[in-house]
Design goal:
The chain is about 50% helix and about 10% strand. It has helices at about 10-15, 65-85, 85-90, 95-110, 115-125, 140-150, 155-175, 205-235, 250-260, 265-270, 300-310, 325-335, 345-355, 360-370, 375, 385-390, and strands at about 5, 25-30, 35-40, 45-50, 55-60, 275, 280-285, 295. This is Integrase.
Length: about 400
């Protein structure tokens, strides 16, 4: 019999639960019926126990957090109290669309930080499957969709995210006993070699970018001054001069080029993540792509940028309050005469400049938040002089 323990579970207790030779369970005293099963492999799965020896898996930790597991378990236990069993266990014949709309969608929105975005992405990419019976989805369906996505120019990284989302959804259907097997369980992500695209700014290009940013700021300030004169002439209230930057574009660009943060990490930064005295910022695990927090030291320009931003904020909430910079970035690229340069390439510029300055790849990996060194190796070719110095150490 598995070992059982009863306690009011905490995040620390769940994270510290170590695998043993046999599966064991931790039972939550706060939501009676919620169980964390720890497998010898290290897998930690949430389940809801009910009736005599009956249980249903509801998700894996850490994908499903303790808070999310409690919310899901309470909903499931309410179903069991009213109907004698989970409703999902009673409904096996349904379409993929009904599964997403009625079950998986509410579940992932309640338990995942980007739940709504995940559901929207599934509908956008897999909408053609919505009328298909859930149990009729096959590997061939995925292969056909993947091929079509790649033919249309969708990047492999985006297709990999598509795969991650659909595998997670189908795995949850399996956990809920709505399917006998996950047809995509063994499908692997598209491998991206270290030769993957690395576009970074040359010194002349970076100079043009900075010049375009300064010119844009100057135009916007001049426009504000003109508007103030117009308002004054008509007796309207003054908007006041700009404090710090005129909008989000210049500070986001400067921070990206000096910290290597992804656009999504920048847009979710909050003032609570910034330590101006300690000269560092924290990328929280909740919005880091890797799911792990990391701390980035602030160089002189990054620190000055944040201090300028601070002039227009009260120190609470998000730094920028925007989700995208698509239009303003496109106009900036035109003004700077930069071709084939995305906002994400500022991250490549950050990494490339570090490597060319002699910073070791593992330090670059830590600053970028890469899970392993493989992704960081794409920058290795930028330091050929270090390879040459290494082989010179060989003696006859």
């Amino acid at each position: 019999m598995p070992k059982l323990s009863r306690e009011t579970l905490t995040k620390a207790a769940v994270e510290s639960a170590k695998p043993q030779a046999r599966v064991y369970s931790l039972r939550d005293a706060k939501v009676v019926g919620l169980v964390l099963r720890v497998q010898p492999t290290g897998r930690k799965a949430w389940a809801v126990a009910y009736g005599r020896g009956q249980a249903t898996t509801i998700g894996d930790f850490p994908v499903m957090t303790l808070e999310g597991a409690r919310i899901t378990a309470q909903r499931l236990l309410a179903e069991i109290a009213e109907h004698g069993a989970p409703l999902r266990a009673q409904r096996k014949a349904e379409t993929f669309g009904e599964f997403i709309r009625d079950q998986y969608g509410p579940h992932v929105e309640a338990t995942a930080k980007q739940g709504k975005a995940t559901v929207a992405a599934i509908k956008s990419v897999f909408g053609g499957w919505y009328d298909k019976p859930l149990t009729a989805i096959t590997l061939a369906d995925w292969d056909a969709l993947k091929a079509e996505r790649l033919r249309s120019g969708t990047q492999p990284a985006t297709v990999n995210r598509d795969l991650d989302r659909i595998k997670a959804a189908l795995q949850q259907a399996l956990n809920w006993s709505l399917m006998d097997a996950n047809p995509l369980a063994k499908v692997k992500r598209i491998k991206r070699g270290i030769e993957a695209r690395v576009r970074y700014l040359s010194k002349p290009e970076e100079k043009r970018l900075r010049t375009a940013l300064e010119a844009r700021e100057k135009r916007r300030r001049k426009s504000r001054e003109s508007g103030e004169a117009w308002r004054a002439a008509r007796g309207k209230d003054s908007l006041g001069a700009f404090q710090g930057y005129t909008d989000h574009l210049m500070p986001m660009t400067l921070l990206a080029i000096n910290t290597g943060l992804r656009r999504g990490e920048l847009t979710q930064l909050r003032w609570a993540d910034i330590d101006l005295k300690g000269k560092r910022l924290t990328v929280r695990a909740g919005y880091a792509k890797s799911g792990k927090a990391r701390h980035i030291p602030l160089n002189t320009e990054a620190l000055a940028t944040l201090k300028a931003c601070r002039k227009q904020h009260n120190g609470d909430g998000p730094l920028f309050g925007v989700a995208a910079v698509t239009k303003s970035w496109r106009n900036l690229m035109t003004a700077a005469k930069l071709d084939d340069f995305r906002f994400h390439d500022l991250r490549h510029t950050f990494a490339s400049k570090l490597v060319m300055a002699g910073v070791d790849l593992n330090t670059v990996r830590e600053l970028l938040g890469h899970g392993d060194i493989t992704m960081t190796l794409r920058y290795a070719h930028l330091a050929p002089e270090h390879k040459a110095a290494a082989v010179e150490l060989l003696v006859l």
